[in-house]
Amino acid sequence: MKPYKVILYYCYSPIEDTEKYRDEHHIFCVENNLLGRIIIAPEGLNGTVSGSPEDCEKYMNYIHADARFAHTQFKIEEHDKPAFQKLHVRVKDEIVNSDLPVNPLVRTGKHLEPADFKALLNDPEVVLVDMRSDYEHEVGKFKGAITFDMHNLRELPDHVHEIEHLKDKKIVTYCTGGIKCEKASAYLIEKGFTDVYQLHGGIIRYGLEEGGENFDGKCYVFDNRITVDVNTVNPTVISTCHICHEPCDRMVNCANAECNNHLPICHKCAEEMEGACSVECKAHPGKRVYDGTGYYVSQSNHYQPLQGLKSQKRNIKQQKQAERESA
C-alpha cells in the first residue's frame, strides 16, 4: 500500500447556503491535513482530495454522514506522495463549467456500470463519445471513440451537429470521473438523441474495476500527477511529443504562464526547451522555472486558505461580545 490516497468524486445535490458550507467544509479539511481542489455550488459538490489513508477515510465518512451527499461515490487511488500542494475550497455557480440548460437531477443519460460498459465495447451499434477537452483526449481515449475539438464543455453545443446523424444509435458518453457526462448526456437527450448512456464513475472507475481494457494512452487528471495509467490489459501510447514527434504520453503545462498549453513533451525535449512548448515561449518573460515535472501550482486569485477558520473565530468573538452586553 502506498502512503497517500487520491479520492475523486462528485455529487449533484442542492446546497442552500454555499458560503456557510464552504467554511465548514474547509475547516474539516484543514483539521484533517487534506489537500486538494473542491468546488461547492448550489447544485452540489465536486472534488479531488489527497491525504493519508486515515485522513481520506475521515473525509469520505464526513461526506457520507451528510444526508445530502450520502449517495456520493468515491474513486480511490493510491499514490506515493500528496497529489496537491495546496487546499482550495471554492464556491462557484456550477460544479463543472458547462452553461448547458439542463438539470441532471431531472433527467440524464442511463448510467452504465463499468462491467456493463465493458460488455458493450464491441457492440457495432454502440457509439462512444468523449466529452472531455481536446488536450485530454489527445493523450488518451477509448478505441474508436468520437472526440470533439473543444477546450471545455461549454463548447459542446457547437459540436453536436458532428454526431447529428447518429441520433438513433446507442450513444455512450464518457469522461474522467463521470461528472461532465451527467450534463452532456442530458443535453444530448434534449437535442433529440433517443438512446443515451454514460459511463458511471468515468474512465478512472473503469480502470480501477475492469482493468481499463481498450483505453488507449493515459488519462489526464487535474492534479500534480497530470496523467495516470488506466489500462493494465492492452495498453498503448497514442500521443507524440509536441517538439520531436516521437511517441510520448508525458503531459506537461507549457512553462510560459501566458501560454500554459497542455501538451505531450518528452523528458529530453522538455529539458532542452526548459519546459516551454516553443522557442517563443522559451524566451517569454513570463516563463516559469521548469522543475522537471511540467506541473505548476495555480494562482490563488485572492482566495484565502484560512478564510473559513477566520470566519468561525469572528463569529465566536461576536457571539461572546453579544452575551457580555446582554448580561
Automatic annotation (TrEMBL):
Belongs to the TrhO family. This is tRNA uridine(34) hydroxylase. Pfam families: Rhodanese, Rhodanese_C, UPF0176_N. Catalyzes oxygen-dependent 5-hydroxyuridine (ho5U) modification at position 34 in tRNAs. Its EC number is 1.14.-.-. GO terms for molecular function: oxidoreductase activity, acting on paired donors, with incorporation or reduction of molecular oxygen; transferase activity. Gene3D superfamilies: 3.30.70.100, Rhodanese-like domain (3.40.250.10). The keyword Transferase applies. The gene is trhO. It comes from the Bacteria.
